[in-house]
Amino acid sequence: MSLTDRVVIVTGGGRGLGRAHCLELGRHGACVVVNDLGTSGSGEGASSAPAEDVAQEIRGAGGRAISNGADIADWDAAGELVRAAIEAFGGLDAVVNNAGILRDRMFVSSSVDEWDAVMRVHLRGHYCLARQAGEYWRGRAKAGQPVDARIVNTSSGAGLQGSVGQSAYSTAKAGIAGLTLVQAAEMGRYGITSNSIAPAARTRMTEAVFADMMAAPDGGFDAMAPENVAPLVAWLCSTESAHVTGKMFEVSGGKIVLSDGWRPGAVVDKGQRWELSEVGAAVNGLVAEAPVPMPVYGAR
Asked: What are residue 252's DSSP bridge partners?
């Protein structure tokens, strides 16, 4: 399989989606670096146990894995994480940016500290690790060595559509979607692809917000099981996905959806400067002509 001996770092790999990604990658022959601080869902506390438990599970099944507790939003620690993968397995082929936290609050009740905490883990965390890995891959490419590398980012439906009570989280996830596009455009010349997923699955974060939707069924197909998302992530890390980059995939249960981003829609062009008295009618016409947008999650 095209994952054999591929070296993959998975952040937030100790629980939920990250754990499912790690186990799927290990099952198909990848060398997995399970990175997790072991914090609470809001980013508090720390423990090495979640990451090490997953690494042991992979090794117990005959795979190769190490655990790592680096803070991926710390620039130097992210660099050390990349070096740890290279030292353990001889290289690095893919980064799965999965780690995240929630500090949910209605916008006018939110604090700047809560905002900064969410941005740090999601946006800075996605940046630091991919940037450190990207420098390693670019150096190899410039030295004439083969590079077939992958970045898999984690956005959210909240980032694509917004979510009431999650202004910081929605903003961070929207930023990740934009980052993915730029990474794909800039880094393809070095043999690096970048794609993003917007998963819907049962995790500590989603259970707290959407308890009824995320509840496991008494029997039959468990559509919200995080294991449903992992095969797409594993494929995006594989050698088979080299032709796919700059894409956003919504994934849940048995569904994989390729999402369209912002693109020009209805237009009106006067050919000269608008008078203030004319703008209202022009905008109202554009809005009436445009398709009905997807609703914000939780909006009434």
From this structure: 255
Question: What tens digit of pLDDT does each residue of 87-99 get?
Answer: 999 999 999 999 9
Catalytic position from the list 127, 173, 194, 297: 173
Where in the chain are the domains? 7-258
Report field, pTM of the whole predicted structure over 0.85: yes
What is d(CA 105, CA 146) in angstroms, rounded to the nearest whole number? 46
Catalytic residue from among 67, 136, 155, 156: 156
The catalytically annotated residue of 169, 238, 241, 297 is 169
The DSSP H or E segment spanning 181 is helix 167-187
Q: Is 136 a catalytic residue?
A: no
Exposure letters 27-66 (e unless 16+ CB within 10 A, then b): bbebbbbbbbbbbebbbeeeeeebbbbbbebbeeeebbbb
Residues paired with 197 in a beta bridge: 154, 249
User: Does the domain spanning 7-258 belong to CATH 3.40.50.720?
Assistant: yes
Known catalytic membership, residue 190: no
Q: What is the distance, to the nearest Å, from the Cα of residue 152 to the centroid of all Cα atoms in its chain?
A: 6
Q: Is 173 a catalytic residue?
A: yes
